[in-house]
Structures are given as C-alpha cells and as structure tokens.
Amino acid sequence: MFGPYEDEHDTYGEPLNQECRALHAAGRVESGDPERLVSGTRARHLLAACEQAGVDLGAYDRQVVEWLAMWEPSTVQVMIGIISRAHQAGRAGMPRTVPTTGPHPCPSCGAAPGQLHGWGCSTARCPECGQQALSCEDHTNSRAVWSGRFPGEVEVEIYGLEDLNDLGRRAERGEFVWDRATQLWRRA
Ligand SMILES: [Zn+2]
Ligand SMILES: [Zn+2]
Asked: Which among 148, 125, 147 has a CA at the least distance from the CA of 135?
C-alpha cells in the first residue's frame, strides 16, 4: 500500500521516483525523453498498481493511463497511492482470497525496488531486448532496474496468461513483443 502523502517530498522515496532518478543518473534519458523511457516507467508502475488492485482495464482505460503517465512521477505516484489504498480499504471488509505479492527485493542480487540489478544477476532482464540479461550477448553494457516484481509476472496478470512459460512461448511465436519504454512485453 502506498501513501497517504502530505506533500510532494513524501513520494520521493517510492520505487517509481527512485526508478526515474536511476534512469536519469545512468544517463539513459535524452532531453525530452524521445524514447519514452521515463513516461514508460510511469505507465508501467500505474498499470502494475491497477493490476495489483485487481482492476480490469479496457482499451480506453489503458489509453487514459498512458496519458496520465505523462505527468510528473509525484503526480503519478499519488494516483498509485489512491488506487492501492482504495483496494486496501475494499479488502478490509472482505475475506482474503488471492494472496498478493507486493514489491520485494530482487531474489538473486538483493537490489531494492527501483535500484539497478547487480552485474551478472540471473533475474535481471536485458532492458533493450527483454531476454534474460545473462543470455543476451548484444547489449552487455545495459543494466536493468529491478521493478520489485519478478520479470513477466505483471504481464501474466495484465493479459490473463497461464504463467511465465506461457508468456515465453508467446514471445517466441511473436505474439508478444518487448516494449523498451514500459520494460514490459505487450501484445504484438
Ligand atoms: Zn537482481
Ligand atoms: Zn539484449
């Protein structure tokens, strides 16, 4: 659960803000963010908040989420906080059914959500092409940020796939393509 926030500074320590700062610190964001690395990161966190709250999104919902992601990380974080707290409030009076997996440190290298994976981390995905970073030989200088969720987990839930293997098979068949901006697989 995120928030409540009393002022903008309260949002600075959250994974979204940290991840955006890490992207800038790594020098990967060009002026105006033409590759949508930062806005894609904001969209991903917002989508993940909806998914964790069990919210089904229609095409127009997703369009508006992408638009909301154009705002500053702090503004987007407030929306994330409200979604997560509304979900929490709704759950308070309901029997617990599906256990939710919240953001946690990387199981392989211990990176905290929003931080870069250690070099050689076996969980990290290549930020350029989406395959396991260790097996990618094309982008050996790129290090990914740990989102707090296991790679593929968010996509499996957003698209209602069977499991991570199902996502892998669909990616191999070209049904899913890697979206560098959001650092998520999306339907081709
Ligand atoms: Zn890691
Ligand atoms: Zn790669």
From this structure: 125
CA 103 to centroid of ligand 1, rounded, Å: 13
Domain boundaries, the chain: 103-148
Tell me, in angstroms, the distance from the centre of ligand 2 to residue 181's CA. 14
Residue with tokens 């050689």: 120
- Averaged in consecutive runs of 10 residues, what is the pLDDT profile of the chain (188 residues)? 91 93 90 89 92 88 91 95 88 52 82 90 93 90 88 89 93 94 91
Do residues 148 and 7 touch, judged by C-beta distance below 8 A? no
DSSP bridge pairs for 132: 125
The ligand minimizing its distance to the Cα of 140 is: 2
Residue bearing tokens 């499996």: 156
Over its C-alpha atoms, the chain yields an Rg (Å, rounded) of: 16
pTM for the complete prediction?
A: 0.54
The closest ligand to the CA of 128 turns out to be 2
Per DSSP, the three-state class of 177 is strand
The per-residue pLDDT for 32 is 86
Judge whether 65 and 59 are in contact, CB under 8 Å: no
Task: Tell me how many degrees the CA angle 22-28-33 measures, rounded to the nearest 5.
Answer: 100
